[in-house]
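Running this now, will post back.
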Amino acid sequence: IGNVPLDLVTKVWAQVAGQDIFTNLKSKTHIGRPKWDEIFNQLISGENASTANDVNVFFCGPNTMGEAIRNHCTTYRFRFYEEKF
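Update: finished.
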């Protein structure tokens, strides 16, 4: 079943309250791992598309996530910059 019950509750809450159940913002919280291919494809397709040379990705966060994003940047030929604290 995965996140189906949680997703249902958050959708109903958003419709009733007009805001996200977790953040109280109008934008929806997305549960689970990001769909990096979809996100990266949006950057290089459509009417506001960028070329790979125009995209710089700046990252600060967990190593595992950084590795995943770095791999996608390599695939899409985006520039990847990382800062560690």
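The chain has a mean pLDDT of 86. More later if anyone needs it.
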